[in-house]
Amino acid sequence: MKKWLGVCAMSLLLTGGAQAAGFEARAATPAPELKAQDLAGATKTLADYRGKVVLLNFWASWCPPCLREMPSMERLRIRMAGRPLAIVALDSAETADEVNGFLSKMKLGFPILLDPDGSNTKRWKVFALPTTFLLDASGRVRYVLTGPTEWDEGEALKIIESLLAESSPAKAASPKTAFNPAITKEYDQIGL
Questions:
Q1: Is the separation of the CB atoms in 88 and 110 below 8 Å?
Q2: What distance in Å separates the CA atoms of residue 175 and residue 192, rounded to the nearest whole number?
Q3: What residues make up the domain containing 156?
Q4: To 5 degrees, how large is the angle CA 161–CA 102–CA 70?
């Protein structure tokens, strides 16, 4: 499985560059089952994130495009703090030791789940890494992206904002544009 996904990731590198071709909109289809352990050994399912928009990213530590997009996912997590967005990274076909080795070099504040046997990767029909699914607050797949992107800007950010607006119109106003002097000042200080 790891070798096959590696070939798929390499083909993305050769044909793509840093940005994926674009998001594929879905007709609000129910998400497949997801059951995986986090690095502490706790079992997680999509029900743990119900009521939130979910960015579910399938990745591996040996995948250069996956590693390139991780910092933007962390910036997105920080930018969206306090909003109903869950970023979940599901490592495909690696051991906890391999993942922890990577995480010792890159600090991430969002949950990392393990799929050492690739069963979730197969169930979700992931054929290349990274592949990311955006789920609405009801747990339905709304968008899929195969390949890397910058998650905290451009089309990716617009899609996430639109899903947040659907899930909670009163709370989904962008912190930058909503009138909140404290937040606006904080964003101005860090250049957002």
A1: yes
A2: 10
A3: 2-190
A4: 15
Bridge partners of 89, per DSSP, are 57, 112
Cross-strand partners of 57: 89, 132
The tally of domains found in the chain comes to: 1
pLDDT tens for each residue of 44-100: 999 999 999 999 999 999 999 999 999 999 999 999 999 999 999 999 999 999 999
Taking the C-alpha atoms of residue 118 and residue 23, their distance in angstroms, rounded to an integer, is 24
Which residues 6+ apart lie within 8 Å of 104 measured at CB? none
Distance between CA 54 and CA 17 in Å, rounded?
A: 25
Angle between helices 2-15 and 64-79 (to 10 degrees): 80
For residue range 103-154, list pLDDT tens digits in order: 999 999 999 999 999 999 999 999 999 999 999 999 999 999 999 999 999 9
Strand boundaries in 81-181, DSSP class E = 85-92, 112-115, 131-135, 140-146
- Cα separation, 54 vs 28, whole angstroms: 13
CATH of the domain at 39: 3.40.30.10
d(CA 133, CA 135) in angstroms, rounded, equals 6
The torsion angles phi and psi of 119, rounded to 5 degrees, stand at: -65, -40
